[in-house]
Amino acid sequence: MQEQAVLKYNGVARTLHWIIALAIITEIVLGLGNDAFRDSFPAMPIHKAIGITILALSLFRLYWRISHPAPPLPAAMPRWQVGLAHGLHWLFYAMIIAVPMSGWIMSSAGPYPLQWLGLFDIPKWPVMKDSPLAEAAHAGHEVMGKLFIPLILLHVGAALYHQFVVRDGVLRRML
Ligand code: HEM
Ligand code: HEM
User: With a cut of 70, which residues of the chain have pLDDT below it?
Assistant: First the structure.
């Protein structure tokens, strides 16, 4: 561990990071496992409700991130790693909004009502079934939803590399 203070993300950023990370992983399992879960519990309505919640939290998180800059990365970190980290982080910000948004648009064109865990109705966008927008949202949702998996593995791999190989305390910035 280098002799330098570990600057942390603020509490709101850390809390939102872990809630959204857990929710995204749950979403991927529910989305890909939908057919397998079909007989045991209503995976898709839960997938939709969690997804809409992620969208709301992510919009607030993006606002919070823009108004509260991240702490500076360790000075010794190579520039390519800093660039890669920033690129991936901003891609994640785009995806945690675009993936649920595409799901919402796609489902608006579908026959099922949209409800938040049976508590209230989620409004539908005026999207026609089989319209180009509905089809693009569907394709985008599936591609980006699956793209999360290698990107999360890269992100977690980088965090573990910093923790156990470089030992520069980057993981603790988010704990
Ligand atoms: C960050 C949030 C979300 C993630 C990570 C996510 C991820 C996924 C994944 C990985 C799949 C499986 C794709 C495939 O089988 O190729 C899926 C399917 C699906 N998702 Fe999402 N999703 C999210 C939010 C939403 C939202 C908000 C809605 C709707 C309100 C939604 C509606 C659907 C539907 C209807 C399917 C089934 C598509 C089909 O099988 O044709 N998702 N999602
Ligand atoms: C599963 C979905 C995940 C998503 C979408 C995600 C997204 C993000 C984003 C957007 C940032 C940048 C924060 C900012 O600059 O405001 C970040 C930072 C970070 N994440 Fe994740 N994350 C996920 C999971 C994880 C997991 C499982 C770990 C633990 C191994 C982790 C460890 C970290 C760390 C240590 C940082 C701070 C990096 C730095 O100091 O610059 N993340 N994450």
Answer: 1-6
